[in-house]
Write a structure and sequence with these properties.
Largest sheet of chain A: 4 strands, antiparallel
Order of helices and strands of chain B: HHHHHHHHHHHHHHHHHH
Strand content of chain B: under 5%
Helix content of chain A: 55-70%
Largest sheet of chain B: none
Order of helices and strands of chain A: HHHHEEEEHHEEEEHHHHHH
Number of helices of chain B: 18
Helix content of chain B: over 70%
Strand order of the largest sheet of chain A: 1-2-3-8
Number of helices of chain A: 12
Oligomer: heterodimer
Number of strands of chain B: 0
Distance between the termini of chain A: 56 Å
Structural class of chain A: alpha+beta
């Protein structure tokens, strides 16, 4: 038997069972369905808009808005355009989100560390805070801050005096406004000088430590420079800064900077809510650093503070930062809840009032969504960059 | 020499612990006053507790008013004492909080739906209960049509309900018939099968009973309160889970166009706030369809919420899919399973099991987010509470604090309960990994 019986060539399988062909078929099907849906939607939109006599396109951008906004960061009045109203709303969103992010980070780290504290009562308080805050809807919390805390405050005549000229009543929080006179620029220059000087000193001292091992009290020197130099400049230039204190006049408070109750309530709500989530992120991050790291640092003779600063926190940050940024993004998106308490953010001004006045739902909502999408794409771009930098380099 | 060997026959009595390492006093010293900083923090903590807890207890319990029929019961001038929370307000309005403006004589329909919902949820979530497939059928197929038929009423929804029941019966019979043909002769004596037919039969008989009586239609504008909150949450979970699974599979698909569509949808939805999605559903959805198909005002946010939750669910499920080792896929393929069978029989059962905690957490977020539908004018629980506070019948200085506290208790119990559940499941799932 020299010729082994050869297996018959496998016949070409039917095209129906070729995974490649099937793949093409499914994809064509999906594309077809999506195109059909888009076409249907488009033709319906055209028909519906014509029937309801709603204009399309961005022509409304330059039209007069005709409504007022109480809190504006750029000049705005009822005679301004819809486009300007958009920018006012966008800036208000950015304002509340950026202040909220800073405050929520501080509070969140504080609570997160407190929850890991060995002190029983502190850790329990932090636990109750986190559990309560995280398990209640943000909307309820905003209603609570706005309707149950800030609204029932006494009127301007019985304003609560919080000290240092700060007044609080049901029309908002009134803070003294610094007025810069001639020569106040010197203080700014001194401050800049102090910042750059201490930065240079920090770099120099780090180099010194690496080469000679000698350590300098960086923190103290930076603090001293930041306080002393501007103070010195303040007196040298003849005390150019005065304060415009809020005063009760008639039935209202005049002067100073007004923090509107809507802004205040939104900020309080967003900060406390997001801080609850950040606290959990921080706790998870610190707990992710294995105990051996702390013990090894102790064995090397590092003190408690140095262990935290040089060993635990840098490793914890690697775990903390990705969810932290997604919490920042959540805060920014949640700031759209401003609409329920009437803070003039992007959604309230643009998707609320402008949409109602123009009726151009398609354009207005598309622009609003594009803004939030930009925020989130920027954040995820930063995240990818950060992850690629911070990822553990493994062999 | 004889006495040198010494053998202890009895155990020595245990010695007391060194002083200062045991007992309550030691615990206090170690946990509260171990260092000056610690002592200061303890004092701050005690101060915080001492200023808030007694004040809250006084307001919500000691000074609270529990009974009354209108605002006079909760007014300081009328009662002549310090007034705390006005629970009489909640007692008076709780029916409104649960049903909204749903007609009073028709509320038994809502109660039946609540009961079915409770049975479905307990069946699905209590892991020891048997016959999960029948529970899933009840929750994902029977409950939605039943709820729609009962809550909405009218002959059209009843017709659809009966058609759905018939379709379910055909599906069950076909499945068992093909099992029988494959030689699985015991199929009709199994309790699971009997239970399945029992459920379908009950569904059809109940439908016949209701059909002969005829249910009046209740417009969705009258629905409100906890009914709407639970409805949105339930619709969210029932539709977002399958849709999320499909999107997650699409995102991991090797077909580039399907993958691209999935990624675009997921990232787009996750990048925008829910409010804008709700606005979009509310104002743009009616533009996208022909005028005569214009969706009901309650249906619009339901679609928005379901799509929104689906994108988040997709990312949770994707996490589970990624955690399944490649060997599982390869094993399934080497057995000759196609893509559908591989996913349905091998990959998804494992992946979904891992991500139960993630699904529950997404659901908690969804449950909290249901409050946002008030922005587009839907009367959910939060809105019902908020609307009752403005009602002059109960306008007192403490009504708001009471209403918010009641709403907070409701949401806290629901969300906290769910998170406890997810933690317990997590513990059970991790049991296999523990040493």
């Amino acid at each position: 038997m020299s010729t082994a019986e050869r297996a018959p060539e496998p016949g070409k399988a039917s095209l129906l069972y070729d995974p490649k062909i099937r793949g093409y078929f499914y994809q064509f099907l999906v594309v077809g369905i999506v195109l059909f849906l888009f076409y249907e939607a488009y033709s319906n939109v055209v028909e519906n808009l014509q029937r309801q006599k709603i204009a399309s396109g961005l022509g409304f951008w330059g039209n007069t808005a005709g409504f007022d906004i109480n809190q504006t960061l750029i000049p705005y009045s009822a005679t301004s355009t819809y486009g300007q109203a958009f920018w006012v709303g966008l800036l208000n969103t950015v304002l509340v989100a950026s202040i909220g992010i800073v405050l929520a980070t501080l509070l969140g780290f504080l609570v997160g560390v407190a929850r890991l504290s060995k002190n029983w009562i502190i850790s329990k308080i932090a636990m109750v805070y986190v559990e309560v805050i995280r398990n209640l809807p943000l909307l309820l919390q905003l209603f609570f801050w706005y309707n149950a805390v800030l609204k029932p405050l006494p009127g301007p005549r019985d304003s609560l005096n919080l000290g240092a000229g700060v007044l609080l009543n049901n029309r908002g929080l009134f803070v003294p406004q610094p007025v810069f006179g001639d020569g106040a620029g010197l203080i700014g220059i001194a401050l800049l000088f102090a910042i750059f000087g201490s930065l240079f000193f920090y770099m120099w001292s780090k180099k010194q430590q690496e080469t000679t091992g000698k350590q300098y009290p960086n923190g103290l020197i930076t603090l001293a420079a930041l306080i002393l130099l501007p103070t010195l400049a303040y007196f040298l230039s003849g005390k150019p800064v005065t304060f415009n204190f809020p005063q009760l006049s008639g039935f209202n408070v005049r002067g100073g900077v007004t923090v509107f109750p809507e802004f205040f309530a939104l900020l309080l709500g967003l900060t406390t809510y997001t801080a609850g989530f950040i606290a959990e992120v921080v706790r998870a991050g610190i707990m992710a650093v294995s105990k051996g790291q702390t013990e090894a640092a102790g064995a090397l003779g590092l003190r408690h503070g140095s262990t935290l600063r040089l060993v635990v926190i840098p490793q914890a940050m690697r775990v903390i930062i990705p969810p932290l940024t997604s919490n920042y993004l959540n805060l920014t998106k949640n700031s759209s809840l401003a609409v329920v308490i009437g803070y003039p953010d992007l959604v309230q001004v643009f998707t609320g009032t402008v949409l109602n006045q123009t009726g151009q739902a398609l354009e207005v909502i598309a622009i609003t969504m594009a803004v939030y999408l930009t925020f989130s794409l920027l954040t995820s771009a930063f995240m990818n960059y950060y992850n690629s930098r911070m990822a553990l380099v493994e062999r | 020499m004889a006495n040198l060997a010494y053998v202890q026959h009895n155990a020595m009595p245990a010695q007391p612990a060194p002083p200062g390492t045991k007992g309550a006093l030691h615990w206090v010293k170690e946990n509260l006053f171990s260092s000056p900083l610690n002592t200061i923090m303890t004092l701050i903590g005690i101060y915080l507790v001492a200023t808030t807890v007694p004040a809250l207890a006084k307001f919500y319990f000691i000074d609270a008013v529990w009974t009354g029929s209108d605002r006079d019961a909760c007014l300081k001038d009328k009662v002549g004492r310090e007034i705390g929370a006005c629970w009489a307000f909640v007692g008076d309005r709780y029916q409104y909080f649960i049903y909204g403006s749903y007609p009073i004589v028709e509320r038994w329909r809502v109660n039946i739906v609540f009961a079915l919902f409770a049975i479905g949820v307990v069946w699905m979530l209590w892991q020891r209960l048997p016959f999960k497939s029948v529970g899933a059928m009840l929750f994902f197929a029977v409950l939605p049509v039943t709820a729609w038929m009962l809550l909405y009423g009218g002959s059209l929804s009843w017709t659809w309900y009966m058609l759905a029941g018939a379709a379910l019966a055909v599906w069950a019979v076909y499945g068992d018939y093909s099992a029988l043909k494959k030689g699985d002769t015991g199929i009709f004596s199994r309790p699971e099968t009997l239970l399945r037919y029992g459920v379908i039969l009950a569904m059809l008989l109940g439908g016949l009973m209701i059909g002969t009586a005829g249910l009046p239609r209740v417009d969705t504008g009258l629905w409100g309160g906890i009914l709407v909150t639970l409805l949105i949450a339930a619709v969210g979970i029932v539709f977002s889970l399958p849709l999320g699974i499909a999107l997650a599979l699409g995102r991991r698909s090797k077909l580039p166009i399907i993958k691209m569509f999935s990624v675009i949808f997921i990232e787009f939805v996750r990048g925008v706030p829910l409010i804008t999605v709700l606005f979009m559903a509310n104002t743009m959805l009616p533009l996208f369809v022909p005028q005569e198909w214009s969706p009901d005002r309650l249906l619009r946010p339901l679609i928005g919420v379901a799509l929104f939750a689906a994108a988040y669910m997709a990312e949770v499920v994707r996490g589970g899919l990624q955690a399944i080792p490649k060997g599982q896929y390869e094993g399934a393929m080497s057995l000759g399973l196609g893509y559908g069978s591989m996913m349905r029989l091998i990959v998804l059962p494992q992946a979904l099991r891992i991500v139960i905690p993630g699904i529950v957490n997404t659901f908690i977020g969804l449950f909290k987010d249901t409050t946002l539908v008030t922005v587009v004018g839907i009367f959910d629980f939060m809105r019902a509470v908020e609307a009752s506070m403005i009602d002059p019948t109960w306008a007192t200085p403490t009504t708001r604090a009471t209403g918010y506290a009641f709403a907070a208790i409701f949401y806290f119990i629901c969300c906290w309960g769910m998170s406890r559940y997810s933690i317990s499941v997590e513990g059970k799932l991790a049991a296999g990994q523990k040493r």
